Amino acid sequence: MANWSCNTSCVSLAGLLSLLLLQPLTTTTSFTNGIRVNLVPKPASAILSFREAPAFRNGNECSSSKKDNIHIVMPLDINYIRGAVAAILSILQHSTCPENVSFHFLSLRLEPGISSLIKSTFPYLTFRVYHFDSNLVRGKISKSIRQALDQPLNYARIYLSDILPRDVERVIYVDSDIIVVDDIAKLWGVDLGDRVLAAPEYCHANFTTYFTDTFWSDVNLARTFEGRRPCYFNTGVMVVDVDKWRKGGYTQKVEEWMVIQKQRKIYHLGSLPPILLVFAGNIKAVDHRWNQHGLGGDNFEGKCRSLHPGPISLLHWSGKGKPWLRLDSRKPCAVDYLWAPYDLYRSSRIALEE
């Protein structure tokens, strides 16, 4: 397990104090309404404050060769930044060779504040932020059952081969609402063979429900899975051979289904179904322990769910409910307390007390 140490000083209060004391003001006067004071809005990244994470160091058995680097891809949305910070911490804390882990963040906006926030929270982290151009999915996204699933960044995982540099040939893609409680190198080491991606498969799930009657009643569309045994898999945790994806033209294949969806409404759930249409029944299955998903409840109410039986290496709050929101509202689910120890966020009240 990694050796770690922590500087005694954590994230400076300067950013918070400047927000409170130096916030630009505009005033307007009115004889009828008196003086009205308006705050000039600040980027959300300037308001958030996180404690500095410990410095995680490699164990003696770790290699310093670049070929042994583990590449993690994660979307970076300011609305989910608290989850992303917790996810990063959990991955580093449980890695035997944390200095060999490189992060590749996908963001709709290259805000300097977000990069600075990550750097100040994880001063020793190797990372890069990439711009995801929302124009790539303009006119291709269909309205789904939950608005969060319709956001352009939710589709960025389809374009990894276009975004990442060519020397990044293999990645682990994870959503930002996960916690890893095992050495990520174990997942990285999965043998893909001739497959493009690996993920836990759930063959007991009713696969037909992910597609509409329009899909299954069309003879040609229903033949899509002929010769395959399609099983559901969650695209929030995947090992992807980016080079094979690129050479196989899989971005275009997924996009073709997105175009059909716009015309015919053949599925319900955002970016998941078109990936299932291309890959279901043709992936490398990994142990279920690597995606204990659905902890955020369903897509409508986000009601509490219990853990599935069996060993756990990764917890995933997919669904409407997010642990930081439920904890803040003082209506947490039992599983949210498993996320809380990785939460580096500090409110303005706590920051001032420090």
Please provide a written account of the structure:
The chain is an alpha/beta fold and 354 residues long. Helices cover 28% and strands 18% of the residues. It contains 14 helices and 14 strands. The strands form 4 sheets. Strands 5, 6, 7, 8, 10, 11, 12 and 13 form an 8-stranded mixed sheet that branches. α4 (112-121) links the parallel β6 and β7.
Strand and helix layout:
Elements: E1 3-5, H1 14-21, E2 25-30, E3 34-39, H2 44-47, E4 55-57, E5 70-75, H3 81-93, E6 101-107, H4 112-121, E7 126-131, H5 160-163, E8 170-174, E9 178-180, H6 184-188, E10 197-202, H7 213-217, H8 219-222, E11 232-233, E12 237-241, H9 242-247, H10 250-264, H11 272-279, E13 284-286, E14 314-316, H12 323-328, H13 336-339, H14 348-353
Parallel strand pairs: 5-6, 5-8, 6-7, 10-13
Antiparallel strand pairs: 1-4, 2-3, 8-12, 9-14, 10-11, 10-12
Summarize the structure.
The protein contains 14 helices and 14 strands.
Q: Describe the global form.
A: globular
pLDDT below 50 for ≥5 consecutive residues: which ranges? 3-40, 348-354
Tell me the number of helical segments per DSSP (H or I, 4 or more residues long): 14
Tell me the fraction of residues in β-strands, as a range: 15-25%
Observed structural traits:
single chain, 354 residues, alpha/beta, two-stranded antiparallel ribbon, 28% helix, globular, disordered N terminus
